[in-house]
Amino acid sequence: MGISAVFRMSMVLALFHLSLAIILAISKTFDTEAGSVLNDGCWSFHFIAIAVLFIASFWITTDIIIVYAYISRFVSMIFLIFQGICILSLAYKFNEFLVEFYNESGSTTSLILLISFTAGIYLFDFVLLWLLYKWFGGCFFNVFLLVLFIAVAIIFTTLTALRTRENASILTNGIVLSYILYLTWAALASDPDEKC
């Protein structure tokens, strides 16, 4: 029941948010506030609806859950790309906010924040990379993934330092590298081989 329950909950959440997105799209088409009220408020309704749908999902046959699991593997790749784009956009906005604040006010606080966040993110990346080598360095493929991450990190950082883009920044690069490192950790941690 364990893995089946995970896929059932995943399906419930996917269907709930898909139906919420459809309601919001219809609401926006007809210029009504009903969709916004449902999305921004009604949290008790959200929790109750999800709980009821989750309980009801146990009456769904396992064959349907298997089909959903197969489909979700492919849809999850699209979600990872979307998630990466959102993180990249957030990183650019955060960097632009700190740089603009420094340019407008001349305050060194935003500059110190920018340098501190950048140093902190790179320190986090190095420490996590070291821990991943320590925890998962027992197999060739795991080491290959970590070396591949190092190669990507060097390439991205070099391109950023060469200013190949006008608004490229080391902070944004560090945040993207953290996301890639998180995905690497997720891949390594999900390996069923206990030796690795």
TrEMBL record:
Listed GO CC annotations: membrane
Keywords: Membrane, Signal, Transmembrane, Transmembrane helix
Highest taxon of the lineage: Eukaryota
Topology with respect to the bilayer: Multi-pass membrane protein
Annotated signal sequence range: 1-21
Annotated localization: Membrane
Parts of the chain that traverse the membrane: 43-62, 74-92, 112-133, 140-162, 168-188
InterPro entries the UniProt entry points to: TDE1/TMS
Primary localization: membrane
Pfam families: Serinc (PF03348)
Recorded family membership: Belongs to the TDE1 family.
Protein name: Uncharacterized protein
Lineage, top ranks: Eukaryota, Sar, Alveolata, Ciliophora, Intramacronucleata
